[in-house]
Amino acid sequence: MAKKVGVYICKGCGIGEALDVDALAKVASKEYKAPVVKTCDVLCAPEGIELIKQDLAGEGVNLVVIAGCSARVNYDHFDFGPEILVERVNLREQVVWTQPPDDEDTQMMAEDYMRMTLAKTKNLELPEPFIGENLSKAILVVGGGLAGMTAALEAANAGHQVILVEKESALGGWLNKVYKIAPLAAPFTELQDPDVEARVQAINDNPRIKVYTGATIASTAGAPGMFDVTINTAGGEVTERVGAIVLATGARPYDPEKLGHLGYGQFADVITQAQLEELVKAEGKVVRPSSKEEAVKVAFIQCAGSRDPEHLPYCSAACCVESIKQALYVKEQNPEAAVYVFYKDIRSSGQYEHFYKQAQMQGVVFVKADVESIEEGEGGKLAVNAQDLMMGAPTLLDEVDVVVLANGMVPSTLVDENLPPEEQTRILNLKYRQGPELPTLKYGFPDSHFICFPYETRRTGIYAAGSVRRPMDMLQAVEDATGAALKAIQCVEMTARGMAVHPRSGDLSFPEFMMSRCTQCKRCTEECPFGAINEDEKANPLPNPTRCRRCGTCMGACPERIISFKNYSVPMIGNMVKAIEVPEEDEEKPRVLIFACENDAIPALDMAGINRLNYSKWVRIIPVRCLGSLNLVWVNDAMSKGIDGVLLLGCKHGDDYQCHFMKGSELAGIRLSKVSETLDRLGLESERVQMEEVSIMDYDKIPGIIERFIEKIEEFGPNPMKGF
Amino acid sequence: MADNNVSSAPIKYDHNFAQEFFSTENGRLAQKCMQCGMCAVSCATKDLMDHSPRRLFNLVRAGKKDEVLGSNTMWMCTSCCTCKVRCPRGIPLVDVMHDLKNMAIAQNYVSYPQAAFYQAFWQEVLNRGRAFEGGVMARYYLKRGWGEIKKAFEMKDLGMSMLKHGRLPMVPPRKIKGLKELQQIIEKAQALQRKEAK
Q1: Cβ of residue A697 closer than 8 Å to a chain B Cβ
Q2: Given an 8 Å threshold on Cβ–Cβ distance, is B35 in contact with A336?
Q3: How far is it, in rounded angstroms, from Cα A394 to Cα B9?
Q4: Do A631 and A570 touch, CB atoms closer than 8 A?
Q5: For position A653, what pLDDT does the model report?
Q6: What confidence score (pLDDT) does residue B1 get?
Q7: Is the dihedral of CA A511, A517, A520, A522 positive or negative?
Q8: What would the pLDDT profile of A96-112 be if each residue is shown by its tens digit?
Q9: Which residues of B touch A346 (CB under 8 A)?
Q10: How confident is the model at residue A426 (pLDDT cuts 50, 70, 90)?
Q11: Cis link prior to B172 (omega < 30° from 0)?
Q12: What is the pLDDT of residue B2?
């Protein structure tokens, strides 16, 4: 497209008082020959917007550069439709609000930002959305339990076709295995029937839902909007095309065979919660498994294996409520029965506190204790030895009929490392180069960004819901399924418009590969956090744009620099680096370049400005989509330009990472460890390039981080490449 | 906090006493206790008690009848209601303590002087409709027996001084008008209390 640049400089918010705006305008018009350069008192006011709109219509400007506030504000004011590119120069938060006014260096900084942005516009193109072929808006739900059925119904009621796959012969999942369920509605005190028939009826009555029972998934190929799912059914293989997938395969109880220390396997009357449900369903009441006599003294042992580094390190969140429910079974059949619950901490999350109180009022006794052993007592009954933490004394509960272990849950996606690959659980059988199943975050749960983006897995378009995502009770699973269904709907709708799903929702750009220069090194296919790039038979990368989340990690990985977005590329950022004016050595004005992640570091830098924190006048900041998109050639460019140091501000990584793209900042760290070779070649100290982890809340630490870095750089002295 | 358990054998949980206690009018509500300890940290007289209210409820749960009814906890309670207003479970602790006092007296756990004093005061009020200190004193000493009477003689100087200043009436006051009705009211209230309990 023929670009015509219009530069508009705002004087509001103190910019006009602090900077020489006319000099700034000259940079644009003289140095960069921008055809239209205008200043305005308040650009976001109606007259400012009108000024721009007149030029769009009259002058044919189609690339608007707005020098004023941060790109994180007023973006709605400066939205001129999909045909107009808008670039922002952040004079307010990054210059005027952090630097002294009317100062030579402040003016230099503002002019540099103007140069950098205009240099960037050289290669900037209008993104054209990628629209896949034969896109489907259907949603596949895997797992027909409570979460799966809820997700299917919600998605169908929102007008989408749904395909529901269940491996058992009937829908219902865990609901089929229980006698009663904990209450799902106020007042949260009464047991409820599982009501499977009504739930299944609602699914069957819905014309938009197609159900496959007794079916498994043989393979999942393709990408969001274009998943081709092959389903193994009793009647042979069926292939369905769907747009997004909700994974609701639930969890299974933790293997009780490993709980020998609590008497499991040793005594017939020590059973798990699931076995008690079976027993009550079969017998109609709680009985001793060994003799089928009615139980009058029952002990529940919470955290049987949970919150124990030897077994399950986490809390399963639902077993306490489950035990309370089962304690009420006993009290229902015999109010005089003695029921003891041995717990570490009662976790009755949400509204279940009412349920807990109800059990207490029914006379269930809760004992905070560490259970030490289960022994055989008199008359074939059991005795529970515990250390009562409230009494600070050893205690004994004897003549127990049944001991019930709350053995927690493990996700159905957990892979048993001890089994050979062909015997491991397979659910989706993805045709992704990076492996047939979803990568898991921790303990086998496939969630990826637990706090900020629930339901998101590391495979775009596949959303986890219910107890496969994290341990939860049924009420939470219903809520979860609803959320995941909505995510899946967002995904198919966005994909149909060629937009990225979260976190860059609505982004129309996508990575394009100049395949003729590809050396098939496989770095992009390896490093993509989302498995978006497969390989074709010739070992060339095979991008799936709808799987892509547009973070640019592939762009940072590519040693040949053949991956570019229309509005974000290696040369584009390279030009920005080269546009920085580096003063001569004898002026003693060092320059430090900061590459900052758009998701955390840039907001933190902006907040530093909003709080009027002053930081060094030697820095120049370039926002990047993710530190993972940092190509080392930029460091090279900066050093050969004579810039004295490069600082990378990215997200926390490690176990509790905060990177929006999971691995981006970590990959940047790994690449940085190799940058020393490049710098050695230039004869420079490798400490001139450093990475710091910044969270979005760390705005108050930013000046200190920058200051410390600059001090270090000053020790090394100026970059000898200046002026070459 | 060490338990008063003298033997090293583990404490056996006994459901019987717990059920007995939880069937009283307010003891029923003490089932809701979740052992958070808010009552204990709120209690003004906790340091004088054998067991804080929280521990007392835990002992009830374990079924340690002698420890509970033989403790001075309920006798040290001043009914200030701080624990009651702070209890996150809404247990009316003060009323639970009253139930415990009644239970202790009914089952003859009366080793604490407070037990005798409460009964003396109560009978005095029931007979006259008003409190007469002399009467309360006489009843109290008779209830406590010879040891306590000896202690009373040691306080004779104080007694004489009070007598001189007219602070120790020797003649009982008149009974109130409508004593019969008062007694009926009290009887009715006690009947209600018995009904509330399971």
Answers
A1: no
A2: no
A3: 8
A4: yes
A5: 85
A6: 43
A7: negative
A8: 999 999 999 999 999 99
A9: 34
A10: confident
A11: no
A12: 47
- Which positions ≥6 away from B135 have C-beta within 8 Å? B120, B124, B128, B172
Min Cα–Cα distance to chain A from B178, Å: 41
Per the CB < 8 A criterion, the answer to whether B43 and B53 are in contact is yes
What pLDDT score was predicted for residue B53? Answer: 95
| Residue ranges of chain B with per-residue pLDDT less than 70 | 1-7, 198
CB of A689 within 8 Å of a chain B CB? The answer is no
Residues A614-628, mean pLDDT to the nearest whole number: 95
Cβ of residue A375 closer than 8 Å to a chain B Cβ: no
With CA atoms as reference, the chain B residue closest to A396 would be B12
> CB-based contact (8 Å) between B18 and chain A?
yes
DSSP structure class, residue B24: S
Contacts of B36 in chain A (CB under 8 A): none
CA distance B12 to B62: 7
- The CA-based dihedral angle spanning residues B76, B78, B79, B82, taken in that order and rounded to the nearest 10 degrees: -100
Q: What is the pLDDT of residue B7?
A: 60
In tens, the pLDDT along A389-401 reads 988 889 999 999 9
In Å, how far are A36, A119, A212, A499, A564 from A123, measured between CA atoms? 18, 8, 51, 21, 11
Taking CB atoms and an 8 Å limit, are A365 and B55 in contact across chains? Answer: no
Chain A contact present for B6, CB below 8 A? no
Name the nearest CA neighbour of B10 among A396, A382, A372: A396
For chain A positions 286-305, those within 8 Å of chain B (CB to CB) are 297
Classify the phi-psi angles of B90: left when phi > 0, otherwise alpha if psi is within -120 to 50, otherwise beta.
left
Q: Residue A558 in contact with residue A612, Cβ under 8 Å?
A: no
pLDDT of A585 > 80? The answer is yes
C-beta atoms of A367 and B61 within 8 A? yes
Nearest to A391 among B22, B28, B58 (CB): B58
| Residue A97, pLDDT score | 96
**CA of B17, closest CA in chain A: separation in Å?**
12
Mean pLDDT of A696-711: 94
CB contact under 8 A, A393 and B11: yes
CB-based contact (8 Å) between A123 and chain B?
no
Contacts 24+ apart (CB under 8 A), B124-133: B126/B183, B126/B186, B127/B175, B128/B172, B128/B173, B128/B175, B128/B176, B128/B179, B129/B175, B129/B176, B129/B178, B129/B179, B129/B182, B130/B173, B130/B175, B130/B176, B132/B169, B132/B172, B132/B173, B133/B168, B133/B169
Q: What gap in Å lies between CA A594 and CA A576, rounded to an integer? A: 12
- Rounded CA separation A285/A279 (Å): 8
Residue-wise pLDDT tens digits, A188-202:
999 999 999 999 999
Lowest-pLDDT range of A394-398, A481-485, A490-494: A394-398
Chain-chain contact of A360 with B28 (C-beta, under 8 angstroms):
no
Confidence class for position A377, pLDDT limits 50, 70, 90: confident
How far apart are alpha carbons A162 and A208 in whole angstroms? 6
Question: Mean pLDDT score of chain A, rounded to an integer?
Answer: 93
Are B18 and A360 within 8 A, CB to CB? no
pLDDT per position as a tens digit, A333-371:
999 999 999 999 999 988 999 999 999 999 999 999 999
Yes or no, beta carbons of B13 and A395 under 8 Å apart: yes
As given in the structure block, the two tokens for residue B142 are 């008779």
A493: enclosing H helix or E strand: helix A474-496
Where do the H-state alpha helices sit in A642-719? 664-672, 675-681, 702-716
- A206/B contact by beta carbon, under 8 A: no
Q: CB B32 to CB A392 under 8 A?
A: no
**Could you tell me which of A529, A513, A509, A504 has the C-alpha nearest to residue A668?**
A529
B55–chain A Cβ distance below 8 A for any pair: yes
| Number of residues that make up chain A | 724
Helix, coil or strand: residue A292 = coil
Q: What is the pLDDT of residue A418?
A: 80
